[in-house]
Amino acid sequence: MKKIVQLTLLLSLILGYSFQSQASLLIEPVIGYSFGKGNSEFSGLSTDSDSESLKGISYGGRLGYQNLGFQLGLDYLASKMDYDGDDFNTGEFGGFVGYEFPVLIRVYAGYIFSGSADYKSDNADIKFSGGSGPKLGLGLTLLPFLDFNIEYRQVKYETEKDVVAGLNVDLDYSAIMVGFSLPFTL
Description:
Blueprint: H1 2-22, E1 24-43, E2 49-67, E3 70-83, E4 86-100, E5 105-120, E6 125-143, E7 146-157, E8 159-161, E9 168-181, E10 184-185
Antiparallel strand pairs: 1-2, 1-9, 1-10, 2-3, 3-4, 4-5, 5-6, 6-7, 6-8, 7-9
């Protein structure tokens, strides 16, 4: 009986120590360039949809937990993009899960659960909310504190505010962000 207790205690100490020594707080600022397509649907007009290109800078960060290569956390990404000559600014909160392989490659997937956008043109100022959608990413570690990332995201905004009476606008976009991040683990 004494050997079983000693073995259990030794095993729990070894496992507890190894998990604690690998567990880390992940802090990762992100900056990049996004490009893609935006689709808007106007109800109440004779033309139902419009598809335009968008491009611009994106920045934000991730905050999470990393243990033995597995990552879990929350992220925020803001983008200031050009939507075919008009301003399109977004702010998106999401969650992510990922895995960092020992060969300096990381994969992650996430879901944007709360997004807002502001579309400004010469004729209109439309505020969107309720943005949600999936995202996928691939990262390559170039230096110990520098990652090169490619991320695909697809977001749909279903509600709007401050639109001309009788006109409802739904907006969705898909974009690829190419950028850099500085992952720190504490």
